[in-house]
Design a protein that fits this description.
There is one protein chain. The protein is an alpha+beta fold. Helices cover 13% and strands 16% of the residues. The chain folds into 2 domains: 98 residues, Beta-grasp domain (Ubiquitin-like (UB roll), Roll); 43 residues, no CATH class. It has a 5-stranded mixed β-sheet with strand order 2-1-5-3-4. The C terminus is likely disordered.
Amino acid sequence: MPKITYVECSGREHRVEVPLGRSVMRGAVDNSIPGIDADCECACATCHVYVDESWLGTTGTPVPGSQEASMLSFAALAQPNSRLSCQITVSEALDGLIVRMPEGQTPRWRDDRSVGIGPIAYVTELRPAMLVPGDRGPHGPLQTGVENRR
């Protein structure tokens, strides 16, 4: 099975095996990789990643005018190597692929009890000083508490 390395904006790496034919997004979700929320199957860009420059020849870039290109035009911090991970299908040729999550797509909790990632993040148990002062999501200050769950 191909191994893919997912790198959080903090630099923390997660190297996991992903079955052939699955999307890079599904590999992240199935392995509980923080930073790829995958809310919608290509309608919201919550699976936005930066493909390592050395892999762009293999993964390709979004086709101009495609749904992926349109979604990325709305993504915070899009770069030339941006892709929606739901649009990258795992093959043997992608063994060793490295993708990075944009800042703001991975919450900076002091422990690993986050259960939601994206414009609205929430935690299973809120404790004082759990958020790092000044934390902001792509749409403003992070909100906490189950009352914000979609």
